[in-house]
Amino acid sequence: MTTMRLSEDEWRQRLTPEEYHVLRQAGTEAPFTGEYTDTTTRGVYRCRACGAELFSSDAKFESHCGWPSFYQPRIGDAVVLLEDRSLGRVRTEVRCANCDSHLGHVFEGEGYDTPTDQRWCINSVSLTLEPADS
Question: FRET partner for 101 with CA separation of 20 to 30 A, picked from 2, 50, 92, 109?
Fold first, then answer.
């Protein structure tokens, strides 16, 4: 259901080198370095590449893993899940449904006290935060 399609050259022009590495090459930012790791601002987190709504601050929680963590996406079809075997084990990759950019990974059954028992571990560089109106 990808709707935003750009060439890799267009993505390189649009994104910073770090954004391109994470969003288009499925890279990962260093833990505890992202701008949204400890943010408690209320609002909507959007895909940095295309602006699609992805997560609500209401679903963000402290996981102490080094990246922003959410227990569910804002809208069920906002993301696409793919099997990822890149580190010699099976993980579930999270991609933006609108532009196919890499966001992070989702993990289940880790024992967090959340309604879904899921940790959507998302790179800050994959997101922009739109603060809620006060």
Answer: 109
